[in-house]
């Protein structure tokens, strides 16, 4: 019985590849200016192959109706990326296999700092030998009306890291779900900035750094924005204390602490001691099949995309137990349906095809004693080329990893009180919809 699930998944993947191949070769698109609500003419659009080190497949321009077409035998055989250059910035749109039509969104550009609002700030600490790994995430919102992208070449989001910390990486993730590595811009007085086109909606800014650690450390966390609630997270075995810091219990195996909003230019002094309990080896970094280019004229020095800043990625494995029921539902759907795989960089609900009418009566809840594994098994079906199926399995795993990260951040925001119950329920429902879309045939 244990082999039934992998076999069914293998059959579904092969069927999916066959169906995808049938529509491969052509994609039609429309460039829409969401600020004006009208098609955008004469916009340069470049098609990139994410599975071939971001090789440029072709470049064209939208016509008077905003439409464009690409013809290439590789289209439909794997996830690709469309890069539109408009008003001096570049915006990316994912093109998953099996989608012959796509809408590329562009926006007019604003330079007004009030366009952006910082919603929350999460800090994670993890000792590692003689180093203390810090990972921070800012959630910012662009709620401009009419919708505009916020961008300034000199830097439009500032941040500060603790003194003596060595910055490792910065990455931004917009509603398209594509993390884009950024290069810091030094602004003086301990401040850094990034230059990134913040499209309307929510964007996550993640950064990681290292500090010396001798079993204990005192860390000062500077506040660069006013009235932003802070969450501190650490693995079990680590003691975290600070004035005004309140224990928030556990969230998916991690210890959570809450702190009231800080005044801008102030700092929170945090005392950290202890050694973290060993983490179970989960593997599961994102695939290496090509690094997408920069988005929004980011100063990336190469325009790489990464899953999330180094050490922060490790924490996603604490989510496996808490999300077993959610992914068990996915396993049931996988065993019953063919799979049309969305790429790892495609969690944007607005760009996804609407789901079919619900068939709740055909989906049974998972047995409580044996929850299904949280990630899709890697299968090499004999009827398809090994490299192709491996890349598809990699996309499935990466998409599930992205969902785990998103749910973890959503639960932290709920615990911090930075999201209403109505918004929490809505976003949770969207994430469950993404899972259904991932396994929908």
Question: What are the key terms here?
Answer:
441 residues, Immunoglobulin-like, eight-stranded mixed beta sheet, 4 helices, 19% helix
Quickly give the CATH architecture of the largest domain. Answer: Sandwich
**Coarse morphology:** elongated
- Give the topology string: H per helix, E per strand: HEEEEEEEEEEEEEEEEEEEEEEEEHHH
Global Rg? 22 Å
Gap between N and C termini: 23 Å
Domains (count): 3
- CATH topology of the largest domain: the name is Immunoglobulin-like
Mean pLDDT: 74
- Structural class call reads alpha+beta
The CATH class designation of the largest domain is Mainly Beta
Low-confidence stretches: 1-22, 281-292, 300-387
Number of strands: 24
Largest sheet: 8 strands, mixed
Main sheet: strand order:
15-14-18-11-10-20-23-22
Q: What's the tally of helices?
A: 4
Q: Proportion of β residues?
A: 25-35%
Q: Please give the share of residues in helix.
A: 10-25%
How would you describe the overall organization of this protein?
This protein is α+β, with helices and mostly antiparallel strands and 441 residues long. The chain folds into three domains: 23-108, Immunoglobulin-like, CATH 2.60.40; 113-313, Sandwich (Immunoglobulin-like); 316-439, no CATH class. The chain has four helices and 24 strands. Strands 15-14-18-11-10-20-23-22 form an eight-stranded mixed β-sheet, covered by helices on one side. Strands 1, 2, 5 and 8 form a four-stranded mixed β-sheet that branches. Helix 1 crosses helix 2 and helix 2 packs parallel to helix 4 (421-439).
């Amino acid at each position: 019985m244990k082999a039934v699930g992998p076999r069914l998944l293998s059959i579904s993947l092969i069927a999916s590849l066959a169906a995808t191949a049938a529509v491969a070769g052509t994609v039609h698109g429309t460039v829409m200016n969401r600020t004006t609500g009208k098609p955008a003419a004469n916009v340069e659009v470049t098609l990139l192959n994410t599975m071939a080190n971001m090789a440029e497949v072709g470049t064209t321009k939208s016509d008077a109706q905003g439409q464009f077409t690409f013809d290439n035998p590789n289209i439909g055989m794997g996830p690709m990326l469309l890069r539109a250059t408009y008003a001096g910035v570049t915006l990316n749109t994912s093109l998953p296999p099996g989608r012959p039509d796509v809408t590329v969104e562009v926006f007019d550009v604003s330079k007004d700092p009030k366009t952006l609002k910082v919603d929350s700030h999460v800090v994670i600490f993890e000792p590692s030998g003689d180093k203390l790994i810090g990972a921070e995430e800012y959630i910012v919102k662009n709620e401009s009306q009419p919708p505009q992208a916020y961008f300034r070449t000199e830097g439009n989001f500032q941040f500060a890291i603790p003194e003596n910390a060595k910055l490792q990486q910065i990455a931004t993730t917009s509603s398209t779900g594509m993390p884009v590595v950024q290069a810091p811009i030094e602004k003086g007085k301990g401040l850094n900035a990034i230059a990134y086109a913040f499209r309307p909606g929510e964007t996550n800014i993640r950064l990681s750094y290292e500090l010396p650690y001798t079993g204990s450390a005192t860390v000062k966390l500077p506040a660069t924005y006013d009235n932003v609630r802070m969450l501190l997270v650490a693995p079990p075995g680590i003691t975290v204390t600070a004035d005004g810091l309140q224990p928030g219990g556990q969230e998916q195996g991690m210890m959570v602490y809450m702190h009231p909003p800080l005044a801008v230019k102030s700092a929170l002094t945090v005392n950290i001691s202890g050694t973290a309990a060993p983490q179970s080896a989960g593997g599961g970094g994102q695939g290496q099949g090509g690094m997408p280019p920069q988005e929004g004229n980011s100063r990336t020095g190469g325009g790489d995309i990464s899953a999330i800043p180094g050490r922060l990625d490790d924490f996603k494995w604490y989510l496996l137990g808490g999300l077993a029921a959610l992914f068990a539902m996915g396993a049931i759907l996988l065993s019953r349906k063919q799979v049309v795989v969305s790429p790892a960089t495609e969690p944007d609900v607005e760009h996804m095809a609407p789901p079919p009418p619900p068939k709740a009566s055909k989906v049974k809840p998972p047995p409580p004693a044996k929850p299904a594994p949280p990630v899709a098994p890697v299968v090499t079906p004999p009827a398809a080329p090994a490299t192709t199926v491996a890349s598809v399995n990699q996309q499935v795993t990466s998409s599930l990893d992205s969902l785990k990260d998103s749910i973890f951040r959503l639960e932290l925001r709920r615990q911090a009180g930075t999201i209403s119950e109505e918004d929490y329920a809505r976003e949770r429902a969207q994430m469950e919809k993404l899972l259904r879309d991932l396994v929908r045939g």
